[in-house]
């Protein structure tokens, strides 16, 4: 009876038609490939010598048909091997948050380059670095590691050593680098391994508890047994999209950790975007242990961890009670002369209050611009800003915890937007639509990003060429 009627069922993905998304993605992938013959050539050559054709497997996660090969980067932009120039809002996912090759860091590297790179001996730069870290973050004692993953691993080891407790606690949706104990998630109220882990030997759920961010009752229940050495957290979650702390959360977190004798490890590796001295200084947090990696040496592999005077005293006491041997902390190239020279220059002349004074208003304009683009098209999406960092996600309101945040991310849509912008000379991070501004970002770049995103959404809403 209804033969003559055809029903068209079109799936909507966060307000965008699935067929429009597929059409736009196919068109943009073709455009990317056609315009980048040299990147394609290098990608083919790389497949013969590098596992899966890249030196580090994340470089395949960009949603492009083949990797984009970098030629040169400076300040807020970079050029690919085919000669295209890009305004860079990804900035090495925070590693280049103060711009590519900032001149004071580049000069320090040049000055150090032929005076010895690594000798397992301290240089005078180390003292200057320690003083600058004290000044910026308030903690009295510092150590240098090669990556934030390492620094977190070492700081957690310190926490277990001084408390004599086995477990740690993380918030659902966290990421702290390649740190075994933190690879847990909350599912149906229980800790489970994070999906995708390879080669896992130990049951991490015996080492880590996991609760939702912003849930102080669950936190207290998890600390009450007195077996948790440390809570490790970013001040706001950023690795599952941004989840901001609710009013009173940090005060509650600090009070509960003190009440149950658990140390508080604040990982500022991404939230350093908040302002000078990171979220910790801006909001007066009082961590026992502190970690910062990525941009700390202007883009060279480096990280630091710091501790309170009390933790330092307890650590010395524990050390005195063991008979030497390897502490399980430290790597040979950490704190070498080359890194310390770059870190000093970065802390003295690049990562300064003046740099933030330039970045924060620009990031506000960027976030307001994107909010306007989303609002004008009536899409059920939110945007959140954390200082120089802004991200938009595919929910009507910002998420309150890791579980909600996981629903705000839709890879197919993220990849399409990322690819469209990339093809028009604007790079944003290919996951949870992360954008960062650096001191060199120009207001024209911000306007271009906002306008290009608007055009992309108009094309998607018009069918994406489907
Ligand atoms: C909050 C946080 N901590 C630590 C890390 C690990 O940094 P790396 O990969 O440089 O070791 C990351 C990486 O994204 C991070 O976001």
UniProtKB/TrEMBL annotation:
Pfam families: Aminotran_3
Entry keyword annotation includes Signal: no
Single GO MF annotation: pyridoxal phosphate binding
The protein's required cofactors: pyridoxal 5'-phosphate
Entries under InterPro entries matching the protein: Aminotrans_3 (IPR005814), PyrdxlP-dep_Trfase (IPR015424), PyrdxlP-dep_Trfase_major (IPR015421), PyrdxlP-dep_Trfase_small (IPR015422)
UniProt keywords, alphabetically: Pyridoxal phosphate
Family: Belongs to the class-III pyridoxal-phosphate-dependent aminotransferase family.
Record-given protein name: Glutamate-1-semialdehyde 2,1-aminomutase
Record lineage: Bacteria, Pseudomonadati, Pseudomonadota, Gammaproteobacteria, Candidatus Competibacteraceae
């Amino acid at each position: 009876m209804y033969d003559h009627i055809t029903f068209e069922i079109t799936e909507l993905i966060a307000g965008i038609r699935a067929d429009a998304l597929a059409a736009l993605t196919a068109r943009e992938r073709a455009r990317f490939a056609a315009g980048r013959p040299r990147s394609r050539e290098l990608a083919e050559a790389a497949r013969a010598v590098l596992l899966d054709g890249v030196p580090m497997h994340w470089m395949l996660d960009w949603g492009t048909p083949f990797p984009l090969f970098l030629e040169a980067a400076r300040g807020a932009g970079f050029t690919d091997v085919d000669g295209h120039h890009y305004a860079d809002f990804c900035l090495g996912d925070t590693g280049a948050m103060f711009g590519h090759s900032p001149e004071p860091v580049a000069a320090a590297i040049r000055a150090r380059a032929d005076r010895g790179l690594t000798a397992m001996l301290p240089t005078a730069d180390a003292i200057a670095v320690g003083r600058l870290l004290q000044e910026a973050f308030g903690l009295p004692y510092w150590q240098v590691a090669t990556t934030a993953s390492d620094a977190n691993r070492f700081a957690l080891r310190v926490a277990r050593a001084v408390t004599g407790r086995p477990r740690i606690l993380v918030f659902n949706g966290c990421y702290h680098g390649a740190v075994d104990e933190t690879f847990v998630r909350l599912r149906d109220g229980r800790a489970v391994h994070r999906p995708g882990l390879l080669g896992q030997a130990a049951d991490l759920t015996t080492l880590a508890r996991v609760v939702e961010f912003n849930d102080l009752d669950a936190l207290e229940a998890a600390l009450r047994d007195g077996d948790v050495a440390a809570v490790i957290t970013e001040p706001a979650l950023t690795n599952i999209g941004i989840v901001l702390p609710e009013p009173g959360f940090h005060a509650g977190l600090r009070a509960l950790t003190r009440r149950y004798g658990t140390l508080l490890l604040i990982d500022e590796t991404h939230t350093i975007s908040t302002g000078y001295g990171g979220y910790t200084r801006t909001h007066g947090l009082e961590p026992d242990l502190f970690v910062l990696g990525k941009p700390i040496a202007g883009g060279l592999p480096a990280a630091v961890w710091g501790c309170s005077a009390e933790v330092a005293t307890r650590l010395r006491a524990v050390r005195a009670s063991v008979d030497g041997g390897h502490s399980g902390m430290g790597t040979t190239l950490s704190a070498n002369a080359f890194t310390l020279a770059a870190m000093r220059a970065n802390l003295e002349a690049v990562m300064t209050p003046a740099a933030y004074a330039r970045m924060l208003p620009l990031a506000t304009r960027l976030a307001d611009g994107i909010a306007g683009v989303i609002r004008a098209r009536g899409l059920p999406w939110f945007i959140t800003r954390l200082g120089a960092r802004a991200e938009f996600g595919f929910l009507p309101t910002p998420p309150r915890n890791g579980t909600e945040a996981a629903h705000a991310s839709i890879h197919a849509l993220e990849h399409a937007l990322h690819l469209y912008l990339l093809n028009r000379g604007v790079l944003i991070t290919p996951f949870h639509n992360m954008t960062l501004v650096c001191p060199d970002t120009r207001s024209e770049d911000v306007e271009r990003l906002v306008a290009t995103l608007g055009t992309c959404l108009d094309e998607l809403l018009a069918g994406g060429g489907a």
